[in-house]
Amino acid sequence: MTVSVHEQPVFSIYKKRNIIERLVARLKQFRGIATRYDKLKSTFLAAVQLISAVIGAN
Description:
elongated; single chain; 58 residues; mainly alpha
């Protein structure tokens, strides 16, 4: 029987995850992204990229 050793959490991963989660929350504030009005994947991706650029510029 093996005993598992508890490893220390890697905090840099959690920092990056927090940044991504906040970005997704900001994206969802835009109605078109939250409800996904666009029918095509390419149009939806373009909208996400455009809004991400706007968020990044602020």
